[in-house]
Amino acid sequence: FENNGYGALATAPNSFWSLGPLAFYNIFDAGLRQAVVDQATSKTRQQTDKYRQTVLTAFKEVEDSLSQINNLTTDDEHQKLAVEAARRTFDLANHRYIEGASNYLDVIDAEAIRLRTEREEIYVRTALNQSVVDLVRSIGGSW
């Protein structure tokens, strides 16, 4: 075969020798295509597992926040009742002291209990508010 210039490059004999090995190369690639497919499949599985773990973590955070809010709401209601009772006890102790029926030590004890229960109520409400913020964050909101 001889080359008669650029026009002869497109003739059948020249095309056969340049395209023939390329066609055979595409058929026989020693498993390279399958390796690329396997690698892509593996990366897809890896990303799917990572996404699944992220979703499960998000569900766990939401469920934990809802459970904590439920428990702290109950605790807050009980703490409100305890504060009301401590205030009534303090008022009664103070009234008894004013009337002369008891000493001031009873008033001091009742006031200490009242202050302790009010402080615990503040702690419970703070934890409840923090749980609400955590819930908003875990469902994708921003605060």
CATH superfamily: Outer membrane efflux proteins (OEP)
**How much beta, percentage-wise?**
under 5%
Mean pLDDT: 86
What's the architecture, going by CATH?
Up-down Bundle
What is the H/E order? HHH
Tally of contiguous helical segments: 3
Q: What is the fold-level CATH name, i.e. the topology? A: Outer membrane efflux proteins (OEP)
Helix/strand/pairing category: mainly alpha
Major sheet: none
Shape: rod-shaped
The end-to-end span amounts to: 78 Å
Over the alpha carbons, how many angstroms does the gyration radius reach?
A: 40 Å
Q: Give the CATH class.
A: Mainly Alpha
List the domain count as a whole number: 1
Q: Tell how many strands the DSSP assignment holds.
A: 0
| Helicity level | over 70%
Low-confidence stretches: none
Describe this structure in words.
By secondary structure, this protein is an all-alpha fold. The chain has a single domain, classed as Outer membrane efflux proteins (OEP) (Up-down Bundle). Helices cover 83% and strands 0% of the residues. The chain has helices spanning 12-27, 32-99, 104-138. The radius of gyration is 40 Å and the shape is rod-shaped. 6% of the residues are buried.
